[in-house]
Amino acid sequence: MTRTRLEHFLKSVGYPDRVSEGSSSFTMRVDGMEIVAKEASGRIVLSYSLSDDLSIVPTLCSYAAGRILREDAVLTCDKSSAFLWQDAPASSSEREMVRFFETFVDSCDWWRERVDALRGGATASTAPDDAMVIRP
Asked: What are the phi and psi torsion angles at 116 (to 5°)?
């Protein structure tokens, strides 16, 4: 039996659940997050919804320029939410899939900390009021 590219991705990263037969997307639960994995046009696309509070989008966008230098995840928003996405060739090796997944989850963690801080929850690292800050 031939595995789909999505099944190959999930097996590569050691995800225990299986994809429904014929499905081209799957929701993974990782570290309290729901990450959607999709197979589209020969690519595996991961996405994570950051917030449906569009009032924080301008602040999130101010972080994006610095983050694009550090990571491959892309901040995007539509009419209802802000989210991250990242893709990789579906033909990637198992090792490349694992790296792709790990770096995406790391990006999600960083962005989730910022969203939590903007919502008044756990605070992200801060600098004194008189310090010059260069955002990552």
From this structure: -60, -40
| 67/34 Cα distance (integer angstroms) | 21
SS3 118: helix
Q: Which two tokens stand for residue 99?
A: 């790296």
Q: Which phi and psi (to 5°) does residue 79 adopt?
A: -70, -15
Q: In this structure, are residues 100 and 90 in contact, taking their beta carbons and an 8 Å threshold?
A: no
The pLDDT tens digits of the residues spanning 13-34 come to 999 999 988 889 999 999 999 9
- What's the pLDDT score for residue 103? 96
CA of 94: how far to CAs of 70, 91, 114, in Å?
A: 23, 9, 31
Counting other chains too, the contacts that 50-56 makes at CB distance below 8 Å and 24 or more residues apart are 50/75, 50/81, 50/82, 50/83, 50/84, 50/111, 50/112, 50/115, 51/81, 51/82, 51/115, 51/119, 52/80, 52/81, 52/82, 53/119, 54/80, 54/81, 54/82, 56/82, 56/115, 56/118, 56/119
